[in-house]
């Protein structure tokens, strides 16, 4: 369990770490996250030299490679501003695994300091911005899939649903086994495609039977997995990153 | 039903078979859903996190003094009249137990549930020596009748449903075909009763071995554990060296965590505290009590500060009950004595990473196991550590370290590292990927068997942010 976090007051400026999946596959979600923060009056800085948090190498067991990649990110956040990450998985990597990865190295203190400034986007909007959303969209039933890393590693099962529940015309529907993994797990989906495939099919099934017309996630790994499975099944269900959904309905 | 053998080497094939077997899928899903909800309910009025913290601390404290505590346990057991034996590995433990049986000229052994005895294939060994070993835990009994191995550490026959059990009992023991669970339980009970009376030796496991008093604690629901440890003239308890705790007062919190995590019970029907053989003025109990302490790879886990956490395990099975992979593939698929998350972090030490090569990777690292583990074993972190050992240069102290290191994969990750540490090249690569998006292959390994191909976006976030800033500047 992550220790209870003391949230700072809303800052004037934040860093935004976009993540590699968003950079490559879902850039709009990243931009929508930035727009949401800017609308709260925050100056958002996007260090141009950011690439990837190093997690794919880390979870695959290539820790030297992961450390080198992580090290290249550490220097991008020199000012003491919060670092907002639109992914529980990359946020969790920086918050919990950077300190482990650099433990006993000259970068240990810096890694810990950076880790302490990391916030997942929905967490930041709820607990730091105290955002108030005004829904402009049509009535809709929506299901939320909170990523396992946001839920367990970062201890944030509620912030995504809390944001959705602010949208007046949106009914957040409960799916069976909400907390169960969608089966993505990075390289797991490639190394164990059949098991992962069974998991994602069950997830799509659960979302479909909840009566949801649409689903949102706070992590692009889960999104790629669940939406990809919907498309493969030719299901009418589609999903998007929660940042895009929130922006789309409130802009 | 045909006899099947499973091996971790065949994880993929076994997973494929299990996933394609609707009966297996349904049996596990239903059973695991039930166990998860029972656990949730029974902990609902507890400060679970504080209790887990306490459980973790008790186990950690015991492990920190393991060598000392084992000596203390030995001394106190001896003082109580329990004879203590040490076994380096499973074979040695089997030999010790066989010799103890032979010394009494034993032909028939009755067994309480013991995963350690499964780990060392004790039954096969005894049978080889002409000693019949009969399982008396109902689930173990069924699995043995069906010539299988347990598919779960707490509920060995959880892969079987009522109809299958009825069929097995009918085939092997001549009972009626029925869905009447009470009838079947009563029949098994009657069959076992006779055997208890005739057994020369009883063999059980141990849940907690208390160093300060030399007491062996045994947690069970069926009373077969009590019968096993009291009816035959000889009782042999067999356990891993990590099961020792310092104090008697350490037992209640661990017991509270164990029963609730395992089966969602506040208490079990039986809780046995064995503190020695029958005394001269006592009417029942065994004449001899032995404790066999088995290492079998545990002391090598003990050498490593990080891996050491593995030994905190109290074998509650909650990690498998909550595992989305275990729920779908079932226990046999793993091909190991301990299946599920605990199996994935424990078996590589016992069988080596070559034999268990597909286990550490068979996890989405969703963290459900670590979240429920009553002694807070960081299972996902340990899986990552074992992955690191598998692909490392083979200097780690896990047997088979480096077995999955392949040049091509190492180069791929080096390439990733290079790209992700050269931001200018990274940005160009993102831009090129956007241009080539139409050229993406429509098949990407196993990914596209269940999902459509992801396509890179036309414009990367890097480029979008630049455009966004320009627009801001011009507005
Ligand atoms: S690892 Fe934890 S959850 Fe799994 S069996 Fe051991 S104690 Fe129980």
From TrEMBL, chain A:
Gene Ontology CC terms, in alphabetical order: cytosol
Domain Cysteine-rich: residue ranges: 14-95, 142-226
GO molecular function ontology, one term from the record: oxidoreductase activity
Source organism superkingdom: Bacteria
PANTHER family from the UniProt entry: LACTATE UTILIZATION PROTEIN A, UNCHARACTERIZED PROTEIN YKGE
Protein name: L-lactate dehydrogenase complex protein LldE
Record organism: Aidingimonas halophila
Automatic annotation (TrEMBL), chain B:
Entry protein name: L-lactate dehydrogenase complex protein LldF
InterPro entries, per the entry: 4Fe4S_Fe-S-bd, 4Fe4S_Fe_S_CS, FTHF_cligase-like_sf, Helical_ferredxn, LUD_dom, LutB/LldF, LutB_C, NagB/RpiA_transferase-like
Domain 4Fe-4S ferredoxin-type: 304-333
Pfam families from the UniProt entry: Fer4_8, LUD_dom, LutB_C
Keywords from the named record: 4Fe-4S, Electron transport, Iron, Iron-sulfur, Metal-binding, Repeat, Transport
PROSITE patterns, per database record: 4FE4S_FER_1, 4FE4S_FER_2
One GO term (biological process): lactate metabolic process
Claim: Cell inner membrane is one of the keywords in the record: no
PANTHER family in UniProt: LACTATE UTILIZATION PROTEIN B
GO molecular function: 4 iron, 4 sulfur cluster binding; metal ion binding
């Amino acid at each position: 369990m992550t220790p209870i976090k003391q949230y700072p007051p809303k800052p004037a400026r934040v860093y935004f770490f976009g993540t590699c999946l968003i950079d490559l596959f879902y850039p709009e979600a990243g931009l929508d996250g930035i727009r949401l923060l800017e609308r709260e009056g925050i100056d958002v800085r996007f260090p141009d030299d950011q690439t990837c948090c190093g997690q794919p190498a880390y979870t695959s067991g290539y820790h030297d490679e992961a450390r080198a990649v992580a090290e290249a990110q550490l220097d991008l956040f020199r000012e003491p501003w919060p670092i907002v990450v639109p992914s529980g998985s990359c946020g969790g990597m920086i918050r919990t695994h950077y300190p482990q990865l650099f433990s006993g190295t000259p970068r240990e203190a810096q890694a810990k300091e950076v880790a302490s400034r990391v916030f997942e986007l929905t967490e930041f909007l709820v607990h730091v911005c105290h955002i108030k959303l005004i829904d402009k969209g049509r009535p809709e039933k929506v299901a939320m899939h909170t990523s396992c890393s946001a839920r367990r590693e970062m201890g944030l099962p509620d912030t995504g649903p809390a944001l959705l529940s602010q949208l007046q015309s949106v009914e957040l529907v409960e799916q069976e086994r909400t907390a169960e993994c969608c089966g993505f797990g990075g390289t797991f989906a490639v190394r164990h495609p059949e098991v992962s495939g069974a998991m994602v099919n069950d997830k799509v099934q659960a979302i479909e039977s909840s009566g949801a017309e649409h689903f949102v996630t706070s992590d692009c790994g889960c999104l790629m997995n669940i939406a990809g499975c919907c498309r493969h099944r030719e299901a009418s269900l589609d999903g998007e990153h929660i940042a895009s959904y929130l922006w789309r309905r409130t802009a | 039903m045909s006899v099947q053998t499973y091996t971790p080497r065949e994880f993929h094939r076994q997973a494929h078979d299990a996933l394609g077997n609707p009966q297996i899928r349904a049996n596990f899903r239903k059973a695991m859903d039930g166990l998860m909800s029972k656990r949730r309910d029974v902990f609902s009025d507890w400060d679970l996190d504080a209790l887990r913290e306490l459980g973790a601390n008790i186990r950690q404290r015991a492990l920190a003094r393991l060598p000392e505590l084992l000596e203390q346990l030995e001394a106190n057991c001896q003082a109580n009249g329990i004879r203590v034996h040490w076994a380096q590995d499973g074979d040695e433990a089997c030999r010790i137990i066989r010799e103890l049986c032979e010394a009494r000229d034993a032909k028939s052994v009755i067994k309480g549930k013991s995963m350690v005895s499964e780990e060392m294939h004790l039954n096969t060994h005894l049978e080889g020596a002409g000693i019949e070993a009969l399982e008396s835990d109902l689930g173990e009994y069924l699995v043995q009748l069906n010539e299988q191995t347990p598919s779960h550490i707490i509920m060995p026959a959880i892969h079987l449903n009522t109809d299958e059990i009825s069929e097995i009992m009918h085939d092997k023991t001549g009972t009626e075909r029925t869905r009447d669970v009470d009838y079947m339980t009563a029949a098994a009970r009657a069959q076992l009763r006779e055997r208890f009376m005739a057994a020369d030796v009883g063999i059980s496991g141990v849940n907690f071995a208390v160093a300060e008093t030399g007491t062996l604690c045994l947690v069970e629901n069926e009373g077969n554990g009590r019968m096993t440890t009291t009816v035959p003239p000889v009782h042999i308890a067999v356990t891993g060296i990590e099961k020792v705790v310092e104090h008697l007062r350490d037992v209640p919190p661990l017991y509270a965590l164990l029963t609730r995590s395992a089966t969602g019970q506040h208490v079990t029907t039986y809780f046995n505290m064995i503190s020695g053989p029958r005394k001269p003025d006592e009417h029942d109990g065994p004449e001899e009590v032995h404790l066999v302490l088995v290492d079998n790879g545990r002391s090598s886990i003990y050498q490593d500060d990080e891996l050491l956490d593995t030994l905190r395990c109290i074998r509650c099975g909650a990690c498998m009950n909550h595992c989305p992979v275990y729920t779908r593939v079932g226990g046999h698929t793993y091909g190991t004595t301990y299946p599920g998350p605990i199996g994935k972090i424990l078996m590589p030490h016992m069988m080596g990473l070559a034999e268990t090569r597909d286990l550490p990777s068979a996890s989405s690292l969703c963290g459900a196991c670590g979240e429920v583990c009553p002694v807070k074993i960081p299972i996902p972190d340990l899986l990552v550590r074992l992955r690191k050992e598998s692909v490392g240069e083979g200097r780690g102290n896990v047997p088979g370290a480096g077995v999955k290191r392949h040049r091509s994969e190492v180069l791929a990750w080096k390439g990733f590292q290079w790209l992700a540490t050269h931001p200018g090249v990274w940005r160009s690569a993102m831009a090129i990927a956007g241009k080539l998006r139409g050229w993406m292959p429509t098949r990407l390994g196993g990914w596209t068997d269940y999902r459509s191909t992801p396509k890179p976006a036309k414009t990367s976030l890097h480029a979008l942010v630049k455009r966004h800033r320009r627009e801001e500047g011009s507005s």
